[in-house]
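Annual report, structural modelling task.

Input specification for the pyridoxal-5'-phosphate complex:
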Amino acid sequence: MTTTLALDGGAPTLPDSPQLQWPRLTPAHHDAVHKLLDAAELSYYGREGEAERLENQWRTRLGGAHTLAVSSGTAALHSAFYALGAEPGTEVICPTNTFLATVMPLIQTGATPVLADAEDDTGNIDPASIKNAITDKTVGIVVTHLWGHPCDMDAITAIAREHNLWIVEDCSHAHGATYSGREVGSIGDAAAISFQSAKLVFAGQGGLFAAREREVFERAVLLGHFRVRAKQDVTSDLGRYASTGFGLNYRMHPVSAALARVSTEQMDDLIQQRQAKLNRLTERLSQIPGLRTPVTRPGCDRGAYYGYKLRLSGDWLDVPMKTLVSALQAEGLDIHQPGSAPLHTTEFFQDAIVPVFTNSEVPRRQYQRGDFPVAEAVWSQSLSLPTFTFEDEAPLVEAYADAFEKIASHLGSLRDRA
Ligand SMILES: Cc1ncc(COP(=O)(O)O)c(C=O)c1O
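The model returned the following structure:
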C-alpha cells in the first residue's frame, strides 16, 4: 500500500469521498407528514396537534418544564431572554465560543451581551470568566452545551445563586445530554433547543422553548403566540393581553412539528448509535500523538454529540491549518475548520458603531482579538469531523482514523513545504 499523500499524487484513503447524508428520513417521518398533507392540516392557533405532542414529549424529558414549540432555536432564545427580563440597561453574560444565535437575539431585547472565555478541555463557557464579567447590571447568564458536552452547571448555578442571576441553557447541540443524571434544559431557569435540520432531532426549521416557572412561560407565550394559544395558556393577569400578544408570531409549522415529534421518538436510539461510532473514532484517534480527542467529564453524557471537534497539539500545530485541511481533504475526508469563530473576533463585536438601529446606538461592549485567548485557541486549533451515526458509516470511522495515521507520518514534510 502506498503511503504517498494524496496531496502529492498518492492514492487517497477514501477514493470516492462519500457524501454523508443527514438527516435521514424514515417511513415514520413520511407517514406523519403525509397525514398532515392529506388532512390539509397546515396551520393552527391553539395548543394542539403535532406541536402539542412535541411539547408533551419534551415536557416529560425536561422534568415537567413548561414547553413551547417555536419556529427556530433562535426564536426560542429570544423568547427566553425576553421572558426572563433581558431589557435595556441590563447585561447578560454569554459564551464567546458559540453559534451566533445563542447571543444575538439579546440585541433585540436591548440588553447588552457581555462575553466570557472558554474552558480549555470542553470549549464551554468558563465559570471563572463568568465571575469576572459580573457587574451591578448583570441579570442573567446564557450557556451553550457545546458539541453536546454539558457546561459546568454546579459552578455556574452557584454563581447564579450568589448574584441572583437567571440561567438560560442553549441545548441545541446537546439533545438528551445529561449532567449529574439530569437532562440538560432542566437545570437552568429556561432552555432553548434548535431542531434545525443538522441537529439530531430535526424539524427542518423549528425549536423548543422551556421554562421552569409558569410566569416565564406565559411571557414567552405572549411574545410569539397571540389569541387562541395565549387565551389557553396565559392564566395570570397577563391574560388580558391575549387578544394581541406582544408582537411576534413564533409558531412552529405543523410539518416541522411532525418531523421533530417523530425524531424525538427515535432520538435515544440514534444517540446510542452515534455515541458508539464516535467513541470508536476517539479510541482510534487518541492513539495518535498530538491529537486531543473530545473529553467527556465524569458525571456527564454528551447525548446527541452534535459535532466532533478534534483539537491539535504538538507537531500538528507546526503545520499551517490550511495545508493540513487540504491534505486531509485530498485523502477524501469531509473535514474543515469549525465554522463559528469566537464572537468577540467578529465585526459586530469589534466595530465602533454598528447600524442595527437607524437612530440609536446598539447596546454593546466592544472587543478585540486576544481578549479571550482560550476560546481563540480552542477554535483555531480544532478540526471539524462528521458526526457518524449509522451502521453503514462504521467503515468510514476506520477510514478516517487510517487517514489521520497516514497524515501523522507526513507531518514533517507538510510543515517543511509551507
Ligand atoms: C448553539 C446553537 N444555538 C442556536 C442555534 C439556532 O438555531 P436555529 O437555526 O434553529 O435558529 C443553533 C443553530 O445551529 C446553534 O448551533
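The pocket of pyridoxal-5'-phosphate is lined by residues 72-74, 98-99, 101-102, 144, 170, 172-173, 194, 196, 207 (CB under 6 Å).
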